């Protein structure tokens, strides 16, 4: 079970765009709490707490204890609107949850033991296909993250979903294939050099073939001229 993370908010008296703009001018982030058997609740939140959650990289996979005055309830972020230029939070949607609630969340991947990968030691590049894995689980079973061990991986090796150890009650949303999480790719410089060498080799072969062709043409012309001369002599 995740440790409780508190989120503090104040009730907002009015809904609508005007009230939301007023909240932003006052240095707050407008939001709404919905779900469960209760009516939606419009609130204002502390932007520093929202930014801290965003910086954690697990904002949408964190269960918060929302405190509004003397009341508290468990919620999970479901939507976050950002300023198109500044990237600051503009509005937050929070879903009420209980121990029986199952949610779909993205769990971040952490790649470990890069120094133990022979492929990376030889100059290979870690090509991350998925920085997070989407799962379905109960709110008390959300994994803190997936550790991806790179020990022993060579250039050309891949890490697939089948290597993940899923905690009890956690299921992948993609079940029809063993999808790729990361690969160890060949060094870019080496690949470019090999491509250049291959291109040079092809050009050289074309040059040789062209020269041979020219010689053959000259030989054919010579024979034709000699035959003509013989016919003239005759």
Q: Number of DSSP helices?
A: 4
Into which percent range does the helicity of residues fall? 25-40%
Domain unit count? 3
* Number of E strands: 13
What oligomerization state is this entry in? single chain
In N-to-C order, the SSE pattern is EHEEHEEEEHEEEEEEH
What does the overall shape look like?
Answer: elongated
Short key terms for the protein model shown above:
four-stranded mixed sheet, six-stranded mixed β-barrel, disordered C terminus, Ribosomal Protein L25, Chain P, alpha+beta, 234 residues, RNA Polymerase Alpha Subunit, Chain A, domain 2
Give the structure's gist in a few sentences.
This protein is α+β, with helices and mostly antiparallel strands and 234 residues long. Helices cover 29% and strands 34% of the residues.
Could you describe the 3D structure shown?
The protein is 29% helix and 34% strand. The strands form three sheets. Strands 1-3-2-6-5-4 form a six-stranded mixed barrel. Strands 10-7-9-12 form a four-stranded mixed β-sheet, with no helix packed on it. A hairpin with a 6-residue loop joins strand 2 and strand 3. It is elongated. The C terminus is likely disordered.
Q: Which helices and strands appear, and what pairs or packs with what?
A:
Elements: E1 5-11, H1 17-25, E2 29-34, E3 41-45, H2 47-56, E4 64-68, E5 71-82, E6 89-96, E7 102-112, H3 118-121, E8 125-128, E9 132-138, E10 146-149, E11 158-160, E12 171-172, E13 180-185, H4 188-233
Parallel strand pairs: 1-4, 2-6, 7-10
Antiparallel strand pairs: 1-3, 2-3, 4-5, 5-6, 7-9, 8-13, 9-12, 11-13
């Amino acid at each position: 079970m995740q440790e409780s993370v508190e989120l503090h908010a104040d009730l907002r008296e009015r809904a609508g765009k005007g009230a939301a703009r007023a909240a932003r001018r006052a240095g707050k982030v407008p939001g709404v709490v919905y779900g469960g058997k209760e009516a939606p609740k419009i609130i204002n939140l502390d932007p520093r707490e929202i930014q801290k959650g965003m910086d954690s990289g697990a904002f949408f996979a964190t269960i918060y204890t929302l405190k509004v005055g003397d009341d508290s309830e468990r919620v999970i972020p479901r939507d976050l609107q950002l300023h198109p230029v500044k990237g600051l939070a503009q509005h937050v949607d929070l879903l009420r949850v209980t121990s029986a609630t199952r949610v779909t969340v993205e769990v971040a991947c952490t790649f470990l033991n890069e120094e133990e990968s022979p492929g990376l030691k030889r100059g290979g590049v870690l090509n991350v296909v998925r920085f997070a894995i989407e799962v379905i689980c109960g709110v008390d079973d959300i994994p803190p993250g997936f550790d991806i061990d790179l020990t022993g991986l060579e250039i050309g090796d891949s890490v697939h979903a089948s290597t993940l150890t899923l905690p009890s009650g956690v299921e992948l949303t993609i079940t029809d294939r063993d999808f790729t999480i990361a690969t160890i790719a060949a060094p870019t410089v080496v690949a470019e050099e090999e491509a250049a060498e291959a291109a040079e080799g092809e050009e050289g072969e074309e040059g040789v073939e062209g020269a041979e062709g020219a010689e053959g043409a000259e030989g054919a012309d010579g024979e034709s001229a000699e035959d003509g001369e013989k016919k003239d002599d005759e």
